[in-house]
Amino acid sequence: MRAETGFCRGVASLRACEVLTAWADSASITRYSSAMRIIIRWLLLAAALLLVAHLYPGVVVTTFGSAMIAAFVIGLFNALLRPVLVLLTLPVTLITLGLFLFVINALMFYFAASMLDGFSVTSFTAALIGSVIYSLCSMVIDVAMERVFHR
């Protein structure tokens, strides 16, 4: 209980401490807002895109602003187009034991690069390798954010 750990230091009664603890743990009070989490994740994914461009020469990102726009567009494509493509290609995905999902990720990466000026990919192979590196960075970012912004 938090009374022993010093959370309720200075509170006269144990009941008041329990009320304060319940109030602090309620959903109405969060340590960080969701908007802040989304903005920080967006900035980190833009930095990850710059890292992909640094690690693999087939992916080119000119500025951090371009990386921010590209991260937004990739996220938009992954939220809107990817579920439809996964559903349409389900038989192929099952036959390849899920490996076709790498191709779908590469397509999202390639489509985003073809639409934007400051973000380019030299070939589909570059999009495949870049999307794998970007996905790994995204997983690391998600784990780190979960640890930092835990409730």
Q: How would you describe this protein?
A:
- By secondary structure, the chain is mostly helical.
- It has two domains: 1-30; 34-148, no CATH class.
- It has helices spanning 2-5, 14-25, 34-55, 64-88, 90-95, 100-115, 124-148; strands at 59-61, 119-121.
- The protein has a two-stranded antiparallel ribbon with strand order 1-2.
- Helix 3 (34-55) packs across helix 4, helix 3 (34-55) runs antiparallel to helix 7 and helix 4 (64-88) packs across helix 6.
- The longest helix has 25 residues, at 64-88.
- The radius of gyration is 22 Å and the shape is globular.
Radius of gyration (CA) equals 22 Å
Q: Would you tell me the structural class of the helices and strands?
A: mainly alpha
Strand content: under 5%
Number of domains: 2
Q: Given the structure, what is the number of helices?
A: 7
Shape annotation: globular
Overall mean pLDDT: 85
The biggest sheet, with number of strands, parallel, antiparallel or mixed sense and barrel status, is: 2 strands, antiparallel
List SSEs in N-to-C order: HHHEHHHEH
Low-pLDDT parts are 1-5
Number of strands: 2
The order of strands across the largest sheet is 1-2
Subunit organisation of the chains: single chain
What separation lies between the terminal Cα atoms?
A: 17 Å
DSSP helix fraction:
over 70%
